[in-house]
Amino acid sequence: MQDGTMPTPATALGDKELRALDAHWRAANYLAAGQIYLLANPLLRQPLRPEHVKPRLLGHWGTSPGLNLVHTHLNRVIRARGLDTLCIWGPGHGGPAVLANSWLEGTYSETYPDVSRDAAGMERLFRQFSFPGGVPSHVAPETPGSIHEGGELGYSLSHAYGAAFDNPDLLVACVIGDGEAETGPLAASWHSNKFLDPVRDGAVLPILHLNGYKIANPTVLARLPEHELDELLKGYGHHVIHVTGDDPLQVHRAMARAMDTALDHIAAAQRAARVDGITDRPRWPVIVLRTPKGWTGPAEVDGLPVENTWRAHQVPLAEVGENPEHLRQLEAWLRSYRPEELFDDNGHPRPMVLSCVPEGVRRLGATPHANGGLLLRELPLPPLERFAVPVDKPGSTRHEPTRVLGELLENVMEATSERRDFRLVGPDETASNRLQAVYKSSGKAWQATTLPTDEHLDRHGRVMEILSEHTCQGWLEGYLLTGRHGLFSCYEAFVHIVDSMVNQHIKWLRTARRLPWRRPIASLNYLLTSHVWRQDHNGFSHQDPGFIDHILNKSPEAVRVYLPPDTNTLLSVADHVLRSRDYVNVVVAGKQPCFNWLNLEQARFHCARGAGIWEWAGTEDGTREPDVVLACAGDVPTQEVLAAAQLIRRHLPGLALRVVNVVDLARLLPAEEHPHGMTDAEFDALFTRDRPVIFAYHGYPWLIHRLTYRRTGHAHMHVRGYKEIGTTTTPFDMVVRNDLDRYRLVIDVIDRVPGLAVRAATVRQTMEDTRNRHHAWIREHGTDLPEVADWAWSAG
């Protein structure tokens, strides 16, 4: 195998098996077309009439016959070889095919008993498709056997590899549509085979389905000369197996040979690595399947070619209810599958149709790997006391929060070294983000060439680094959806690259929560560091805190955002999110030395509250309401608020000051809008109803206004945050440029507390002078003012 030769293919199909496979395929095609068109008369026991047809024709036919072919032949090899298999259906509009096959194999009726495997159930299957109160036209969470939403073009292959990692007995077939093959995420994910461990991971079998067209245009890969496409796929590290044709029986024979050849090759590669100890990276097989778009559908409509053109993409025959000729063509098309041979008088699939279908959990719609919560185990998290930093009094010591977190993650890696169900992913930033302690328990996954100068590369590693945020996201989603745990560490500014991917995952989680048969999975956890306020050296391109805004626009039941202000609160938050289920958790934390404000017990209580008063930082005496509230969310804003509080203590000692820190940003929302939200009474007690609130926030300030606009005291809320003013400069200059600095915050207090502007005019002037002195200082010295660089908290 290592010399590039292919194993000998299995014996060719016998005539009986060939007829059975063709019957299954025809049945799936009939059911796929029926879902798009039929409202009644599912078995065509009567002549087709307009009232049997849906009033709105929705769905996509073009890719369905090819997907049905793949499903039929996967059934064959799963049954023959006893394989545990998951299939990722990448083409965006493959819903009719996957639903059809799920119904044929029985898993759909087991999941939804009202859609029985008979004539009545077939009618329900047809009626519900793309119909109000029914199911989507894409493969979706409602589809048994799926972990990949059909609208996620470009992510199928990375999802497939994520599912295969640490699943050594699993085959993950991945059908890649030739439209999605043009996307950037898909192009990068071909490199995933350099990270697939043939010993401890499963196998991925990519099936590139080239039917030639997208919605209205030809596809790039389908128009490449075959030798050029072969060179491309060989360059990605694959052996290429072609299946081409439009004659069904010939294609069945070719597809069976291709499947047997590919699976023999996979078995040989795994045997070589697992038994013979060969460490060379295998050249895994890929099948290139070329079949006509809309295969077996109408060849021509209204004098225009349809089959094997872009016109077959969606609904080949439109206006069937109003156009008698189209209705006649539809009936002829459906009857061409000879449904009377495929279904008995009661609508049950005939035995020949089901002869290739596997049994039990081997059925593609029944695999537990597509309902990962069934396989999920609790993550063995260590006691936080082992990693907590001592805090005798606030601000007396400093640590790098993510470095301490790395020690906890190293322990998790060690605790899961045998069961292998935790991975850390990120785009080449594990060490940069101070998480390198994990290398003591697991190196970085790597199957490509290594050099003596390399460090921490490991053929069996579970730290995943590739400079493609899309691929990292896809890997982790596939890993989580198949019942494992993980964490995605990323520079804050560049996590935006996966905005659309996380959208789809959140939608998946929201829908899955409403399906009682879907079991909860581990949350998708982001650690965003190297954040906006400490990218002073990299400059404007690395300064963007907007991912938080993007996340908090999504389904409240599924999203959480945490801004721990110090090391112990980060540990507490990390412990919480790693234990959680069915959420997308965003944790923003710094990697630079940061003051420690709370000991572990205080941190736990504070994180449980989500937002609270830091009595030790304010000057309230409990006899009256505060004159002003200084609020903060984020590590740098917290430091600036505490520095401002110290200045107020010194210069305005008679002012009753309250300091509020927010860890859980959703706490600002009303309770009726988010499960973590505060009631109005809670919010008013914390922030007051009518006193000025100066809020120093990590990100874009308008988000805080959006979260609090319905509160009684919103008119008194003044927010400072990132205003898209960035550059390469000193750390403190970043906050000055965005008016988030301590001196600006003191000025805001003076300007907004009634009657204070006149009494504290000299204090305000001192603050302005210090800001001006700062500008001159950094231009001369290149460092921050000594009183800033050497600042430490003191309540005196």
UniProtKB/TrEMBL annotation:
Its EC number is 4.1.2.-. Transmembrane segments: none annotated. Keywords: Lyase, Thiamine pyrophosphate. InterPro entries: Phosphoketolase, THDP-binding, Transketo_C/PFOR_II, Xul5P/Fru6P_PKetolase, Xul5P/Fru6P_PKetolase_C, Xul5P/Fru6P_PKetolase_CS, Xul5P/Fru6P_PKetolase_N, Xul5P/Fru6P_PKetolase_ThDP_BS. Residues 591-793 form the Xylulose 5-phosphate/Fructose 6-phosphate phosphoketolase C-terminal domain. CDD domains: TPP_PK. It holds the Pfam family XFP_C. It is an enzyme of class 4 (lyase). Residues 15-374 form the Xylulose 5-phosphate/Fructose 6-phosphate phosphoketolase N-terminal domain. It comes from the Bacteria. Its cofactor is thiamine diphosphate. Belongs to the XFP family. This is Probable phosphoketolase. The lineage of its organism: Bacteria, Bacillati, Actinomycetota, Actinomycetes, Kitasatosporales.
